[in-house]
Every structure is written in C-alpha cells, then in structure tokens.
TrEMBL record:
Entry keyword set: Flavoprotein, FMN, Monooxygenase, Nucleotide-binding, Oxidoreductase
Similarity comment text for this entry: Belongs to the DszC flavin monooxygenase family.
Enzymatic reactions: dibenzothiophene + FMNH2 + O2 = dibenzothiophene 5-oxide + FMN + H2O + H(+); dibenzothiophene 5-oxide + FMNH2 + O2 = dibenzothiophene 5,5-dioxide + FMN + H2O + H(+); dibenzothiophene + 2 FMNH2 + 2 O2 = dibenzothiophene 5,5-dioxide + 2 FMN + 2 H2O + 2 H(+)
Protein's GO biological process: L-leucine catabolic process
Keyword Nucleotide-binding: yes
Species this chain originates from: Microbacterium invictum
Acyl-CoA oxidase/dehydrogenase middle domain: residues covered: 156-229
Ranges for domain Acyl-CoA dehydrogenase/oxidase N-terminal: 34-123
Protein name as catalogued: Dibenzothiophene monooxygenase
Length: 416
C-alpha cells in the first residue's frame, strides 16, 4: 500500500497557512467522549487477560477503526470527522482510564497521521494522504525513536533503499502505516530529511516482537528493522525544513503523554472507589462499620481526587491551547512554539508525579485483597511506571525552571 498517490512534495511548493480551525464545541466533545467511553467499556472486558498474554492488540485496534476514531482528526471534506485536538486528547484520556496501551496506539496514530500536515510541503499531496488514509480507516505508527541510530536512506539507480533498526515502535506491528524519517543520500533528494509513510508490512520491514516489559504490555512497542526497503517518491509525505510549525508535533506528543497519565490516575481512582465500596468490615480501631466510612479513607481519597482534578483542569486548558497553536499553521513562530512547549512541560511534570502517586497509593485504600492478580489494580501503576520512563521527567523540571529563572528555552528536539 502507498498512502500518497500524488507526486511527492517539493520544497517551496504550495501549502496552505493552516489545516486546523476553531475550537471543539460542547456537542463535539460530548459526542466523541461518549464514543470513547463505549470503546473503554469494551476494552475493560478483557484488559487484564490481554495484559497477561502480552499479545498483539489486533482486536482492540480494529475496535478503534470501527468506532470511527482512526479518522477523528481528518477534515470532513477529506472523509474524516473533522474533530479538534482538544477532543482527541480527551478521547485518549478516557480510554487510558481502562487501557493505556490502546490509548497510546490511538494517540500516536493521530500524531503520525498529522505528520502529513506538520511536515507537508505540498497541499495536494497532504490532501491525497489524508483522503486515502480516511478511506482505509488507516491506523498509523512511527519509528522516529531518536535514541536509536538514524536510519539510512541511500539512492540506488532509480530509487532509495531504507536500512536500519529502531528499538521501539509503539503500535507498528498492528498499524497500517508506519512513519519513518531519514536524510537522503544521493539522487535528487540528496541532503533532505524526508518524512516517509510506508506500508507497515512492506517487504523488508521486520517487526521484532521483542516487547516484554512490566507495563504497556498490549502496546505492541517492539522494535522494527528495515532491510533494503524500497522507497519511492510516492512514499514521501513531507520534508523537514526545520520551521517552527513542523516541530509543534512534539509538544503534541508530550501533551498526549500528560493526558494518558491523567487518564491512568482517573482509572485507578475509579477502580479503587469501586473496590472500597464493596470492601466488607473495617479496621478494628476505626470506630466505623465499613472501610468506606472510615475518615482516613475519606482523607486519602480527598487528597488524591483533588490533585487529579487539578491536573485535569490544566490538561483541559492545554488541549484548547494546542488547537490555537496548530491553527496558526505555517505562520507559527519560534515564540509560539516555545510557549506551548513550556506549557506542556509543566503538565508533564505534574501529570507524572500525580499519576505515579495515585496509581501506587490506591492500594492503601483497597487493602491486601486488591493485590490479587485477577483484580488488575496493579495495571495502572505498571503502565505509568513503564511509560513515564520514556523521557526523564527531571529534564522537564529543568526546562520549566530554567525558563522561569532565566527565560531560556531548550533546543528543539523530538523530546522537547
């Protein structure tokens, strides 16, 4: 499968100022929040079993397609639903309350699909990419992992060949499209950093299936290896020209993380509340009949719920702010980009801290019986403990503090 059908983009060709407009309405948020809840309810039926099996999430990904979520952000005129990023982050958060792995795959799908816009240099190519993606209900993944060695893209006679290995590629093994990037060596594209959209199962692409971590076990986050993968002009969806707009995708990734961590905290609290209400008897020194009536239980829930609600308020505000920034399109300035980067970094700090604390401390409320494997309460903590190591949160603290004191902004990267 080739996701782009028009001629490949050329530097300096026509691209509209913006692809995204306006803000989510209450009706939009309500409609897709309800869809997300239906998906979450369906995932809840076997989330513990799927986690134990460490199996590829084939059925959950199909559920996302069938619910219309693969096309959530594609413009209506191109066959999608035309929703906003605020809505998308809310959807991911709702699903993360039950299954952070699947929420991650979905969020990455939107962000990788959006690479056709962020990096696109030709409007017709971008339209064709999005139109075809919508018609296929395609789920997208990527192998951009910057801590792995760069991929090699070398011209050979009349085409390019892609080689290399990326250690992590979340969702790639169950996706339809995988985004990759490399600096072209030789040929007409020599020296350009090309952004590619490839059939995830094209010849020469091997999904290594080597993901076996304590959390995010249903995220299909194993490595991917490219061996002489044929790349043609039709696979090129954009060129990284290092303009501020293209790099706005990275704060979007970090904002996704913050919403998923928040969703994990909300899910842990909801499950803990259910277990606590059903918990018989009480601690013998408490003076009450049931654990749900114990003032200590109320105090701990009160603390955890209050802190989680504060993170929710910040995440909601940033969802709308992100829509405002991406609506600037190619008019985005370095200052615009820095402002959203720093705002999202602040969310990342508190969402990580609160998510880890909540997912761990709910056991104080639910007791020893909740540590049974069948209960699955540990899934929330294992997921956030695993994913929160994606990039060190201490560097987010440094980023925020350095700007607060000295006005400095970190260099643009795939982590900042």
């Amino acid at each position: 499968m080739t996701i782009a059908e028009s001629p490949s983009p050329a530097l300096g060709s026509s691209q509209p100022t913006t692809w995204w407009h306006g803000a989510a309405t209450p009706d939009e948020l309500g409609r897709w929040s309800a869809v997300a809840q239906e998906v979450a309810d369906a995932l809840a039926a076997d989330v513990v079993e799927r986690d134990r099996a460490n199996a590829l999430p084939v059925a959950p990904v199909q559920l996302l397609r069938d619910a219309g979520l693969a096309n959530l952000l594609v413009p209506v005129e191109l066959g999608g639903h035309g929703a906003h990023w605020e809505t998308a982050f809310t959807v991911a958060r709702i699903i993360a309350r039950v299954d952070a792995s699947v929420a991650q795959i979905l969020g990455y799908s939107w962000l990788n699909q959006a690479c056709a816009i962020f990096y696109g240099t030709d409007a017709e190519v971008t339209r064709d990419v999005l139109r075809r993606s919508a018609s296929l209900r395609a789920v997208w993944a990527d192998s951009f992992n910057p801590v792995s060695p760069d991929l090699s893209l070398v011209f050979d006679t009349d085409r390019y060949l892609l080689n290399g290995r990326k250690a992590f590629a979340t969702g790639a093994a169950v996706a339809d499209v995988i985004v990759a990037g490399a600096v072209a060596e030789g040929g007409a594209r020599d020296g350009q950093f090309l952004v590619l959209a490839l059939d995830a199962h094209r010849g020469g692409i091997a999904h290594l299936g080597d993901w076996d971590n304590i959390g995010y076990r249903a995220s299909a986050s194993g490595g991917v290896e490219y061996t002489d993968v044929l790349v043609t002009d039709a696979d090129v969806i954009g060129v990284d020209t290092e303009e501020p707009f293209s790099s706005v995708v990275t704060p979007g990734v970090q904002l996704l993380f913050g919403n998923i961590y928040l969703g994990i905290a909300e899910g842990a609290l909801a499950q803990a509340a259910e277990l606590t209400r059903a918990r018989p008897n009480s601690w013998f020194l408490s003076g009450v009949d049931r654990y749900a009536d114990d003032p200590i239980t109320h105090r701990v829930f009160g603390e955890l719920v209050s802190r989680t609600t504060a993170v929710e308020a910040l995440a909601d505000r940033l969802g709308r702010q992100y829509d405002e920034v991406v609506a600037l399109g190619h008019a985005t300035t370095a200052d615009d980009r820095a402002a959203i980067e720093l705002a999202v970094a602040r969310l990342k700090v508190v969402a990580t801290e609160v998510g880890l604390d909540v997912a761990g401390r709910v056991f104080e409320l639910t007791g020893a019986s909740s540590t049974k494997s069948a209960t699955g309460l540990d899934l929330h903590w294992r997921n956030i403990r695993t994913h929160s190591l994606h990039d060190p949160v201490d560097y987010k603290r440094i980023e925020v503090g350095a700007h607060f004191l000295r006005g400095t902004v970190q260099p643009v990267s795939l982590y900042t």
